[in-house]
Design brief:
Elements lengths: L1 E7 L1 H4 L1 E2 L4 E2 L6 H9 L3 E7 L18 H12 L4 E5 L13 H22 L7 E6 L19 H7 L2 H12 L2 E4 L16 H19 L1
Parallel strand pairs: 1-4, 1-5, 5-6, 6-7
Antiparallel strand pairs: 2-3
Helix pairs in contact: 2-7, 3-4, 4-6
């Protein structure tokens, strides 16, 4: 069996913008991916609303900092054949005021952690495969969204469009796999941040295909 850890934010958790609840497991991209891959794979879902790459949110102690929990997460689920990292959208909130380049640096820290920790735990010193996913773009509707102020309105819309090129540089430097989720699907028109049910389906299908390519 191949074990795949999916480490992300609310779009991995499955936040439903229609009712502020959570999509059923088989509607989330992780569940869709599991159904496609079948029983020869085990998809481990580790999504948390408002999770950042490496930034401390002053209103949530340190629980939203992706770097803080990542080592324990990896070690508790190890051995792992593949780690999918899809974070960065929450780093674009106005209170953090960071650039796409700096968000990518956060993603690089997590990627390096995944490689180092899994190599250390491996009997052969070979790390798990890592797939770095640049998140979907923030939609233009953020200007009128309830989350607009928190994300700095159109500032985050513009910045999100510069994440992929920076993430791809990180992936090449660290020699890991890369995919741009914004080329697969887009944010719901409801809040311009979260995936719709159709968006989860498209992303789950695309990532399942990529997982097979990586792990075959």
């Amino acid at each position: 069996m191949k074990d795949i850890l999916c480490y992300g934010d609310s779009n991995t958790y499955g936040f439903n913008p229609e009712n502020n609840g959570r999509y059923d497991y088989d509607k989330r991209w992780t569940g869709i991916m599991q159904n496609i891959l079948g029983n020869k794979y085990r998809v481990i879902e580790e999504g948390l609303n408002s999770r950042t790459t490496v930034l401390d949110d002053p209103y949530y102690d340190d629980i939203k900092n992706g770097k803080t929990y990542f080592p324990a997460c990896i070690k508790s689920h190890y051995p792992l054949d593949l780690i999918i990292i899809m974070l960065g959208t929450n780093d674009l909130k106005e209170k953090f005021h960071v650039s796409p380049c700096d968000v990518a640096k956060g993603a690089a820290i997590l990627t390096k952690m995944a490689l180092d920790i899994t190599a250390e735990k491996s009997l052969t010193n070979i790390p798990s495969k890592v797939l770095l996913v640049s998140p979907i773009h923030i939609g233009e509707g953020i200007n009128t969204s309830q989350s607009g102020e928190e994300f700095g309105y159109m500032r985050s819309y513009e910045l999100s469009r510069n994440l992929a090129k920076n993430y791809e540089i990180v992936a090449k430097e660290l020699k890991v796999e890369f995919i741009d989720a914004s080329l697969i699907t887009k944010a719901s028109e409801i809040d311009s941040l979260h995936l719709s049910e159709e968006g989860h389906k498209l992303l789950g299908e695309a990532l399942a295909k990529r997982c097979i390519e990586i792990l075959s």
